[in-house]
Amino acid sequence: xxSLNKSxxxxxIRQEKQISRAEIAKKTRLTPPTVTNIxxxxxxxxxxxxxxxxxxxxxxxxxxxxxxxxxxxxxxxxVGGHKLRAIxxxxxxxxxxxxxxxxxxxxTNDFFLRVLTDAIDKVxxxxxxxxxxxxxxxxxxxxxxxxxxxxxxxxxxFQLEQIPIKKHIERNFSLPVIVENDAxxxxxxxKWFGQGLEHSTIMCVNVGVxxxxxxxxxxxxxxxxxxxxxxxxxxxxxxxxxxxxCGNEGCLQTVVGGDRLxxxxxxxxxxxxxxxLQNNKNLTGYDIHQAAxxxxxxxxxxxxxxxxxxxIALTNFIHLFNPSRIIIGGGVANSGDFIMKPLIHCVKERAxxxxxxxxxxxxxxxxxxxxxxxxxxxxxxxIFAVKDD
Length: 389
Ligand SMILES: [Zn+2]
Fold this sequence. Notes:
Keywords: Carbohydrate metabolism, Kinase, Transferase, Xylose metabolism. Belongs to the ROK (NagC/XylR) family. One of its GO terms (molecular function) is kinase activity. This is Sugar kinase. InterPro entries: ATPase_NBD, ROK, ROK_cs, WH-like_DNA-bd_sf, WH_DNA-bd_sf. The protein has about 400 residues and is of the alpha/beta class. The chain has three domains: about 5-65, Arc Repressor Mutant, subunit A (Orthogonal Bundle), CATH 1.10.10; about 75-190 and about 370-385, 2-Layer Sandwich (Nucleotidyltransferase, domain 5); about 200-365, 2-Layer Sandwich (Nucleotidyltransferase, domain 5), CATH 3.30.420. It has 13 helices and 16 strands. The strands form four sheets. It has a five-stranded mixed beta sheet with strand order 6-5-4-7-11, sandwiched between helices. Helix 2 packs across helix 3, helix 8 runs antiparallel to helix 10 (about 295-320) and helix 10 (about 295-320) crosses helix 11. The protein is globular, with a radius of gyration of 23 Å. It starts with a helix and ends in a 5-residue tail after the last helix. Bound molecules: zinc ion. Zinc ion binds near residues 244 and 253. The site of zinc ion has 6 residues, from loops.
């Protein structure tokens, strides 16, 4: 979007869902003729459509403008530590087609790129949307990502380096591709469609196999000098701790990551602690949550410890960034109050000031495909967002 005003108006229509020309002028402080001209351009290219559902204050009903969500479509992919999820959405981020699969073990760069391409092919085929209506592909990739070059610099869960995702996918589909760290994509999704809507400084923490954070400072995604910002999973909290996938010891991820949750449960079972999980050979995070629901003391204890450690990590983060809200997503967060209660309790106990103690901490409501929706938002942002740089 070249013109700042055009992007400003488009964004107001998106945020308000339905709005009249007069209201747009009021909100943007642009003159009514400027608004009319730009709206005409947007109507012409089909990004915006008219509806007459406004409420009349005497006289005829005002014509309202909305985004024409069927104007174009976007593919979003979430590449987690064990799982890949792909979706196709319209311009309003509505999930129209989705697909997920477990990722094979022993991936190589080439094999991974083939799996990724096949998944994108699958959602495109299932959607029956003609490819010329698709405007881009966003990829949220775990690990360290150079979003400018679109390269996965290091994917710790696959032990792969320098994967040229953008180049490969662009060549295959002839569409613009944006690659971003998965937690950052998730944060953008929350800011646009989820629990971050009304907030300008938020932290979104994805707690799955790994733990990553996406930080939005004053309305903008914060990447840091070398795309490293938000690697909360590799903040070290135990100098005598377990070996992490990054090579260090005692990272937060080695205490509260999804795999570690299961390991800690097994360790406690081996010590002879009583539990209904005793005879479960293929223990999953879901099993632990289910056991906790049935008041299994071991399961409740493991989740409580997880919540407390997360609470310590988040208290540190509150002291660094002072967000107005923290949003928790990812598989481990599905355990709900078993983790959230001790987490919030820990922050209340340890944060410095009354304001810091009452930092809102909520769970994501975007569901399993939240990060994929965030990946879609990477593309949406290039159309809608007002860029001042
Ligand atoms: Zn680590």
